[in-house]
Amino acid sequence: MTASRDDYRAAAKATYAEWKAAFLDEPKVFFWRSGHAFDSALDYFLEVDAGDAQAFAERAVAKYREGGGAWYDDFGWWGIAGERAALSNLFDGHDATFREIARECWDKMAGYAPFGWAKADQKRFADYRPLFDGGVWNHWIDEACNPGPTARDGLCGRQNTVTNALFLTLGQRLHLDPAFRDPAIWSLAEKEYGFLTSWFGLPDARLALLYAYGGPPVERAVVRERVGTFGPAAGKVTDAAYRPDLAWAGDQGLVLGALVARMRNLGEASPEYAAMLRLARRLIAGTQDYLVEADSGLLKPWTPEPAPGGDDDDYWTGPAVYLRYLLNAYRENASLEADLQNPAIRAFVEKNARAVIENPQRRQSGDTLVNRTNDLAFLVAAVAMLP
Hints:
Elements: H1 5-25, H2 31-47, H3 53-65, H4 73-87, H5 95-112, H6 161-176, H7 183-200, E1 210-215, E2 218-223, E3 247-248, H8 249-266, H9 273-290, E4 302-303, H10 312-315, H11 318-332, H12 334-339, H13 343-358, H14 368-385
Antiparallel strand pairs: 1-2, 3-4
Helix pairs in contact: 1-14, 2-3, 2-4, 2-14, 4-5, 4-6, 5-6, 6-7, 6-8, 8-9, 8-11, 11-14, 13-14
């Protein structure tokens, strides 16, 4: 069965109605999921139907004001969504409020996330001194939150990719907005880029944050889910929950988004531009290979099983994150736009969008908002990217 753009548009409109109800009902304990979901709704308003955008603005602001953020990365999702909303021309009269949200979230992240080690008992946790400077943590290191085997879970107190990529993306996006041309923001964003670049290029292939493989003509890479080793004994002391084969679809999207924003900031004349474009292409090729089911062509939220910390619902957000930033690359970078018109990418978008329509009983998360956000992202991508 072949679906047309009109079919995807109609399905997106029906999905948005379900998405909206789920968004309004989402408990504030899942603060970050709401910010992530709002970011995908912006694509729906821009590509499918903006009729409800103005009325929805106040509801989005109210959801943010409910609070509920706990870890530092929670604020990155809302900050990015707030900045996008402010620049979208969708919400007359609310631009200042959305910029305020973006600034509040940046200040929250910048005021805490870079100091995970500085706030730690550095004698007690000496093994976990960072290997490279300039990165951020999802929570400062303490007795409950640390990379050791006796901590409360396998998630807290880490320099994980999601927190660092959110911080980089938000900083680079803010710098693109003339309202936020603050040298302090740019400085922190560039330090973060240096941190990630150092980790990507770590000589030890088992521990480098970038798993690069393949060679010309198809170079591939995926970003691992977290840093795995520490300064005092690099390669010997590792995060107790580190898994070198683990990749999350959301991380691939976030790093891709950060690269696209930084390429816009530096411009094609920059000597760094070609390397960033090459890495973006490798991530797209790697995601298509490493995170797509061979038989069905559907995007996996993470691989391999299980999800870190047994936290399936959070990691199920990955498909929408990736599709959102793939669509952003298609819109914002002419070279990547051309790449993304190739038949393999179009087939990938089509298969995933058709699955939303034809197979609603496929495996999904236990959170309705997460599921409808994934569905909406695939359908909107099909509307925007398919001929």
